[in-house]
Amino acid sequence: MASDELNRHLSTWLGLSAADAEALGRIVWADRAGHPMSPIELARQIGMTSGAVSVLIDRLERAGFASRHRDEGDRRRVGVRPTPSALEGVSAFLDLAGAEIAAAVRETPAEEVRVVRAFLERMTSASADANARLRSGVAARGAGSARAVG
């Protein structure tokens, strides 16, 4: 997929592994959305165990790209934020790599963007609902019956 290749270019640009660059990208986007990413949320999004994500965050911290912060409202909660160095590196990469993407966005009629956005919001909501249901254990209860049918 083209986005996977862009992620590989970002990893080369920043001197990170592809997995670390993917994680950093998610940390940056969460920060830009106004909320630090929790290690558990990051683990869920990239399909790693919490222990593996802890090691990954340690690497990002050592590289100067991320830092852990305690939640001011609940000191037990930890968030991961990008450092200014990470934000500068990602921004520089997007300036270089984003010209074609920006042009495609500018050339897309507003009505088409509205329709695509509405569709993506519905798909995101449906995916979140399915993930919540699957996390609640419904999938585990149905797994045995699904195998019996096949």
Low-confidence stretches: none
Largest sheet: 2 strands, antiparallel
Helical segment count:
8
Strand order, sheet with most strands: 1-2
N- to C-terminal separation? 30 Å
Overall 3D shape: globular
Q: Care to describe what's here?
A:
This protein is mainly alpha-helical and 150 residues long. The chain folds into two domains: 2-102, Winged helix-like DNA-binding domain superfamily/Winged helix DNA-binding domain (Arc Repressor Mutant, subunit A, Orthogonal Bundle), CATH 1.10.10; 108-139. Helices cover 73% and strands 7% of the residues. The chain has helices spanning 2-14, 18-32, 39-46, 50-62, 84-97, 99-107, 110-135, 138-149; strands at 66-70, 78-82. Strands 1-2 form a two-stranded antiparallel sheet. It is globular, with a radius of gyration of 18 Å.
TL;DR of this structure?
With 150 residues, the chain is mainly alpha-helical. 73% of the residues lie in helices and 7% in strands. The chain is globular, with a radius of gyration of 18 Å.
What brief labels describe this structure?
150 residues, mainly alpha, two-stranded antiparallel ribbon, Arc Repressor Mutant, subunit A, 73% helix, globular, 2 domains
Architecture blueprint of SSEs:
Layout: H1 2-14, H2 18-32, H3 39-46, H4 50-62, E1 66-70, E2 78-82, H5 84-97, H6 99-107, H7 110-135, H8 138-149
Antiparallel strand pairs: 1-2
Helix pairs in contact: 1-2, 1-5, 2-4, 3-4
